[in-house]
Fold each of these.
Amino acid sequence: MDREPEEQTAETVRQLRALATPEGAAALSRAGALLADGVDAVAALTRLRAEVGADLAGPAWGIARQRHKARSAFGADADRLLFTSDTLEQAGRPELAARRATRLLAGGADSVADLGCAAGTDTIALARAGARVLAVDVDPVARELTALNVEALGVADDVWVVAGDAVEMVAAARGGEVAGCGAAVLDPARRAGGRRQLDPDRWSPPWSTVVELLAKVPTSVVKVAPGLDHDRVPAGVEAEWVSVGGSIVEALLWGPAVSRTWRRATVVRDGVPHELVADTDPGPAPTGPVRGWLHEPDPAVIRSGLVSLAAADLTATLIDPTIAYLTSDARAESPWVSSYRVDEVLPFNLKKLKALLRERGVGRVVVKKRGSAIEPETLSRQLRTDASGTATVVVTRVAGAPTALICDVSD
Ligand SMILES: C[S@@+](CC[C@H](N)C(=O)[O-])C[C@H]1O[C@@H](n2cnc3c(N)ncnc32)[C@H](O)[C@@H]1O
């Protein structure tokens, strides 16, 4: 029988507390070992029930699975942290949380309200960066996880976990402080019922609280959806988009006291952050004909509206005023773009494209597209033959015309 949500919450809190006992820790370590040995769920649960009891077996197995998923991001900490599947999904990358915490505290703030702490990963980063942290959440499971996690990672002396509604706390903020803290982190829940909430007014807390916090607490940072409309960014607030390994992972709004510029793209490659900044809107890049190299800007550069800065850096031009592909005479050794050598340029036509690839001995292609409705996987399948050569086919528009660029042909 399904439980009421409150009963389910109370039961999860009870289970988490049971896992924090010495018997619970032993059950977790046994579950982790079974998972590491590749024992399947049914067999593992049967063995766990026999060894640690029915009460601890299921919760221990559930947490062991989340720890296993968390390991690539959280490293050794993953084996001490507790996550539910929801809170792990909501958790940001720890290296970026540490970076945010350092920047937020650089001006001297020593107390921070983490408004919506979930499993406490921002709270931990802030405490490790030297702050006293008030960790707030409406959800009892989140508060329990944060309390246990700060204890497990040895920062509990600097953290106070409290029940509270961030909307009310921000409404009551005075004198640049919220809930008595001189700085704040707000990371609204942007999913509901397993689905992404695209409308910022439906985030929890909603957009109105985001704007109010940035206006009332100048030393603050808010995590927002990477797709946020630039028009929503309040004046005097820096917006930063961060990508790791070519994918956008977060977007941030920095309160006026910690804003340093207008827009920032932070591109993390091989663990090293590279930053492109603009104090004012740099406007569009110039457009020109396709030259020997095509450059695909990193998504953080595109989303932050800084493609023209990358273009200037590479002496490159856009291939079309509406498409974020750049072109220049030389390969770019730059974090802002990935470069492709252009071998052929032709109006997009499947028959002609096939013929040209056959002529060049290409049987396998990676398809990229921008400004085209084609399905890359479908086109890649359609272009597949027995020939041994490989290439990248870029389907896009050049000066308004549907065009295919055959790039990086190799035998
Ligand atoms: C996206 S998660 C935060 C993730 C966290 N920063 C991390 O990196 O692990 C959002 C959290 O805000 C909490 N929350 C949502 N609305 C809230 C409100 N009005 N007041 C306090 N907490 C709230 C949710 O329960 C959830 O735990």
Note: The chain is about 35% helix and 25% strand.
Amino acid sequence: MEFQLSDEQSLLVSTLRRFIGIELHPLEDIVEQTGELAVEDAERILKNSRDLGFYAMNIPEQHGGGGLSTLDWMLVEEQFGYTTDILIRRAFGNVYEILLAGTPEQQERWLLPSVKGRRTFSIAFTEPEAGSDAASIRTTARREGDTWILSGQKCFISDAHFSDFFVVTAVTDQEAAHRGISTFIVDKGLEGFTIGPDQPMMGLRGTTHADLFFDDVKLGPETLLGPEGDGLKLALETLGRVRLAQIGARAIGKATRILDLTIEHARQRKQFGSPIGEFQMIQKMLADSAMEIKAARLALYATACSIDRGNEAREEISMVKVQASETLGRVVDRAVQIFGGSGYAKGLPIERYYRDARIYRIFDGTSEIHRTVIAKALLKGAPQLYDLVAQ
Ligand SMILES: Cc1cc2nc3c(=O)[nH]c(=O)nc-3n(C[C@H](O)[C@H](O)[C@H](O)COP(=O)(O)OP(=O)(O)OC[C@H]3O[C@@H](n4cnc5c(N)ncnc54)[C@H](O)[C@@H]3O)c2cc1C
């Protein structure tokens, strides 16, 4: 067992930290205050990130990406956790691996431009009546000769107004239940496809979230991603590593940065003639946060290594999703407490972190749903989830 970064990994982490410190940190407050990232800033971030090789690093080299192992990808995402979600999205790309399931023609048309940063896309699964229960969607795609006719509505879609296309689930066979859902690539601008207004959120400033409306949108046969009826299987197979990265690793990075700021504050802030860090109740909070971050990070790396050994690690990913996002929630809550009134005040970073962190326990499967996944596996017999000897 190795618990040390290689020289290459150390270089990757330190270069990335420098990039984030120089390019992204100065923009955080501006985006928070204005609610948007200026186009010229977004373009500069993309260019500089691409020049340094950070953009779409998770995608295999043969598709123009960085070809990172899962572990190295997690190291990268953990560093990106040091900044806000929208800046990560612009600097790293959020190129979901689901497009790797496409035909060579689909990869040429949709994956390659995404890896180069020329087009961006979002995943659109959630509907007003189908959130956790992803199989209960009502959006349909019915076949008419060679084309598909898409009708329905998606909601809460991240970055909706900035995306050029969407990966959308739709029912293609009403009788086939789970096996009757397929996935389509839907370009913005098609007749009958409208994007609703921004739904303001508690946090995550700098981007938009919106409903998508499909009113008999005509889709060509080339837009079906993966085999017909395999939509949910495709999502299950391709979104796990993304979840580990975008939620697990980023949450741990965020928690680490918050703890850094909190320790600094506990050193500086004096009450009753002493730095507040000398009070035992403050010390307990700092120690608890450090212990929880460390445990979550080890679980993240162990899961990443397991995937790199060829395992699917579905339940382990769920474990990290819950552990990391809930650790982030506790760490930021303690930070507000330790910062006192300035932790609650707008304009200082802790209040923003508090709002931004809350969604991590909800999107990409709530804590409850992931606990259900873990518990079902345990009840079927999966001692390897908690017993090293059984692995
Ligand atoms: C900021 C933001 C960004 C998002 N981005 C996207 C996106 O880009 N693409 C996309 O497709 N979706 C996106 N979503 C949707 C997100 O994934 C869903 O909100 C999430 O999956 C939960 O679904 P829901 O909101 O319908 O809650 P519900 O499914 O209605 O759940 C409500 C509560 O019931 C609990 N619950 C439900 N079922 C069970 C069960 N079986 N056992 C125990 N408890 C249960 C849940 O855990 C939760 O606490 C986004 C949401 C937000 C807020």
Note: The longest strand covers residues 147-158.
Amino acid sequence: MKIGLVGLPGSGKTTYFRMLSGQETDQHGRRSQVAVVEVPDPRTARIFELCQPKRMVQPEMTFVDLLALHSGDSSAGEELELVKVAGDADAFAIVVQCFGDLDSRGEPLNPKGDLETVLLEMSLTDLAIVERRLARLAKKRGDLGTHEQWEEKVLSRCRAILARGDRLLGESFTTEESKLLRGFSLLTMKPLLAVLNVAEDDLAGAGAGEARQFANGKDLGRIALCAELEEEIAQLPADEQTEFLADFGLEEPGRERFIRAAYDLLDVITFFTVNENEAHAWTISAGATAPEAAGKIHSDMQAGFVRAEVVPFTALDEYGSMAACREAGVMRVEGVEYVVQDGDILQIRFTR
Ligand SMILES: Nc1nc2c(ncn2[C@@H]2O[C@H](COP(=O)(O)OP(=O)(O)O)[C@@H](O)[C@H]2O)c(=O)[nH]1
Ligand SMILES: [Mg+2]
């Protein structure tokens, strides 16, 4: 999973990026930076311990600290850079400054306004992409094939939505329409998490109520986290971290809360595979079927899917081995329609 951090200059993107990745950053932050972070699932370690393969593969999450969006004046070049670097992101986290009295331009703090600005810029970036394509189609005038005529109709509809400053996510598109739009890597097709960068003395974000309401109204996920405090805590030795967090009334490090919010936003679950080589954790959308899960591992496995043998993690944990699960009758055989459950250990049977 890949999450792009966006937001106005000075909102705290790079500070969050350091907190999430444990990575040092280019001081001026003028370039987009990428970090891949392991998100260990204790269940993978338990499967590894019981089945003793050679290695284990934990889920990963990729964070991108994107170039700042510049309110109102981002150049076409920057927009394209944003799409190039973040077009394949699964979601965006919009960082909103809720700490201090003034923003980086010296204006009074306005978290709700900043959030609106970023949403609008995303719509405008998409609008520019859609208009470019429409202009090319328009050049062909009467020579449009049926497919291009259909494309023009779909894109015109998108143009109207984006020109209103709305997002494409939440609009209903047919499967073919969605497929067409995916090809453009549009920013407003992706789920958004509003990350309220709150002050150390207002960790609950009482001062950011308007922004919170606005985020709810726009159907964004949201989380309040003090980037600077969390970064400081993340640098402490593990045992001191717990103490510090408790002092601030926090139950968990910011990184964990951030990642959980992203999982919730994307509505993903984890399934596992295990063989003599590896115990492997995979993330897929909740509601995915067994063949779709197989496709995550290899496209051949989806194409030739025959059946899946399923053992819930809790059963392996209890019986101690896959063989014991089979003997106890807790291994199930499921077909193409099976909806994978969080914690399933899958053995995919397929033909080549
Ligand atoms: N007081 C306070 N300052 C912060 C917080 N988060 C970031 N900053 C400061 O705000 C400035 C901009 O942060 P940065 O992460 O570089 O923002 P970016 O432009 O969005 O990448 C830096 O001086 C940070 O130290 C915070 O939670 N509280
Ligand atoms: Mg930065």
Note: Residues 287-350 form a domain with the Ubiquitin-like (UB roll) fold (CATH 3.10.20.30).
Amino acid sequence: MSVKTGRASGVANVEIDYSKCIACGKCADICGGGLVGAIFKENGKMIVDQKRHFGCIGCGQCMAICPENCISVEGRTISKIDAIDFVEDPKASYEEFYSMISARRANRNFLEKEVEQEIIDKIIDGVKQAPMGLPPSDVEILVLKGHLKVREFVTDIINAIDHRKWIFGRTMRFFFRIFSKEFSDLCRTYLYPTALFYIRDLKAGKDGLLFNAPLVLYFHASRYADPADPFIAATYAQLTAESLGLATCFAGTSSNFLKYNRKLKKKYGIGMKDHHGIALLIGYPKYKFERRLRRSLSKVHYF
Ligand SMILES: Cc1cc2nc3c(=O)[nH]c(=O)nc-3n(C[C@H](O)[C@H](O)[C@H](O)COP(=O)(O)O)c2cc1C
Ligand code: SF4
Ligand code: SF4
């Protein structure tokens, strides 16, 4: 049985050029971890069986791993031309990568300068490399490019917050407490006061929601996707933008109000049933951080 996702149905077609195949078996081992894949080895020959498990889901990994470059996958949005030879050492060192991620800080202070289209394209190219629950990715990005677009979005969201702020107010908190003390506490100490700050700031012509970012990417995905997909994609966008010297900051609030507002979802082209991810603010940094911060986790435990 083939897997249906937002953008794909049926299986992708897999062809092996047996004149080049050395029967190393790597494609079978990589396909579904060697257990649930469409390729297997029989009598020293690689066989593609589209009835095995889910058939070919079009992940492309066999094309990426084949030492003889003799596999071609066509369908489910992928094709042979998507397998591209490495021209450089494909890995940043741990030291380089750690240096970048540990120097990153949420930065809400942006220069007025707009982010150029070629830079936006590079960030989106980075996002395309994010893993997804099932290929092809069902992640979609709403791009709010430029201060005017961002300001319109901010105004819409804060007006939505203004209409719904009673949800976090005293009466509802009493009911929430019965089911979740944590959520009730969050409403009292964070969500309700924050809603009031946003509304106050907007009236004063300020943007406490997206901090006048010149570029905002909002991540969402069809219901077929894993709910984690938009968040993972957003993380790739953040790291890609950081590698380009940009300032970034996530903003979680807008999704909580966008996801229940049909009018706004329609206006911004977001599917009515979509999983909502997060907004990523991007711009040129007004200030640069001078040092790293040591960070900790709640717990790391081994079983
Ligand atoms: C899921 C998530 C939601 C966030 N939402 C907001 C937000 O609504 N507004 C905001 O100013 N920052 C938001 N942030 C940014 C965090 O406040 C910031 O990442 C955190 O303070 C840690 O700082 P650091 O990124 O510099 O380590 C969010 C971050 C994450 C991961
Ligand atoms: S990875 Fe390539 S060479 Fe190796 S068995 Fe598969 S098709 Fe043949
Ligand atoms: S594209 Fe993925 S699922 Fe399809 S045969 Fe290759 S490894 Fe298997």
Note: Residues 181-203 form the longest helix (23 residues).
